[in-house]
Amino acid sequence: MSNQPVQTVTTSADKAKLVLAGTAVVAGVVGFYALAGQSTLIRAAALVGGLVLAIAFAWTSYQGRAFIGFASESVKETKKVVWPSRREAMQITGVVFGFVLVMALFLWGTDKLLELVLYGLILGWR
Question: Is the pTM of this model over 0.85?
Answer without folding.
Answer: no
